[in-house]
Write a structure and sequence with these properties.
This protein is of the alpha+beta class and 281 residues long. It has a domain of 74 residues. It contains six helices and eight strands, in the order H-H-E-E-E-E-E-H-H-E-H-E-E-H. Strands 2-3-4-5-1-6 form a six-stranded antiparallel sheet, with no helix packed on it. Strand 4 and strand 5 form a beta hairpin. Helix 2 packs antiparallel against helix 5. The protein starts with a helix and ends with a helix. The relative contact order is 0.16. It binds a DNA duplex (14 and 14 nucleotides) through strand 2 and strand 3.
Length: 281
DNA sequence: GGTATTTGACCAGG
DNA sequence: CCTGGTCAAATACC
């Protein structure tokens, strides 16, 4: 059965994640026996171990939900399968972003809020935004932003339709996390000339998820963990799967600082993602 | 005064 | 009928 094969695949991923954590723990153990080992490298190892655990737990939770749903579906085999065509689904992209105090989740485009709704089962309302240039340039880009129930710094951003407007974003991915004032200043001078220091200290990250492929998503998590274990500054390469969404998507070589908070992104951040994955299956 | 946000009403799909 | 998405009048902000 396909389901069984899938399950084995998921298990392998989790096991591999745990093995990686074990390997890092061993290295830490050896380091601790050696008094000359650097404190920094130990810290890095601990961080890597934590990431491995978090990734494994995340994957387990994800799998459990998927399996639960598969189960439900087979139970209801007599009932007509729900046709999942959520509107515009083929262009839905999800981005999970964390927000630091006083920063904005602006992605560089101009959005105009046109609605807000309380969502059944969610503590936080969902905001509805459309491109400011909807009427002037007939740009149909739309996004929905909802704060995570469990992690107030975590936002689930759902993009529907991509920008067709010709407006070049004033900001880039880095400035996306500046305060509005900082952004305005930067934009007036030259948005492309932001000091590298600013970039280095930008303490926020997004995770773009291609909904095409669940395994890809998992691979992303694995990459995070791996990178973290190998580098002190926890850098990772951003292979942005979302074209035309954010200003710097073409700069594939850029590295972003990854915060440890990333691993605290919980399942609720992916509730919508889960739904879409479900639809796909 | 122009532009953005808020919020209740409305609508469509299930 | 319930829920999520959009509209549009009222309001806030600059």
């Amino acid at each position: 059965m396909v389901m069984k094969e899938e399950m084995l695949m998921e298990e392998k991923l989790v096991i591999s994640e745990l093995e990686q954590g074990k390997e890092l723990a061993n290295r830490l153990f050896n380091n601790l026996k050696n008094p000359s080992s650097s404190n920094e490298s130990n810290k890095s190892l601990i961080s890597g171990i934590l990431h491995s655990y978090e990734n494994a737990i995340f994957m387990l939770n994800l799998d459990k939900k998927t399996l639960d749903r598969n189960h439900e579906r087979t139970d209801q085999s007599n009932k007509k399968r729900r046709l999942s065509k959520k509107k515009k689904t083929d262009k839905i992209k999800i981005c999970v972003a964390t927000e630091q105090e006083g920063t904005s989740l602006d992605d560089g485009y101009c959005w105009r809020k046109y609605g807000q709704k309380d969502i059944h089962g969610s503590k936080n309302p969902r905001g509805y935004y459309r491109c400011t240039h909807r009427f002037t340039q007939n740009c149909l880009a739309v996004k929905q932003v909802q704060k995570s129930d469990t992690n107030p710094l975590c936002y689930e951003v759902k993009y529907l339709e991509s920008h067709t407007c010709n407006i070049t974003p004033l900001t880039n991915k880095y400035s996306a996390f500046m305060s509005k004032e900082e952004r305005n200043k930067g934009a007036k001078v030259d948005a492309t000339k932001q000091p590298k220091d600013t970039i280095k200290h930008m303490e926020a990250e997004e995770m773009m998820l291609s909904l095409e492929d669940l395994d890809t998503k998992k691979a992303i998590f694995r990459t995070f963990s791996f990178s973290n274990s190998e580098t002190e500054n926890i850098l990772f390469e951003w292979n942005d799967p979302i074209e035309n969404l954010s200003p710097t998507t073409s700069d594939s070589g850029i590295t972003y600082e990854l915060l440890s908070e990333f691993v605290s992104v919980d399942d609720s951040c992916f509730s919508s993602l889960e739904n879409i994955i479900d639809l796909k299956s």
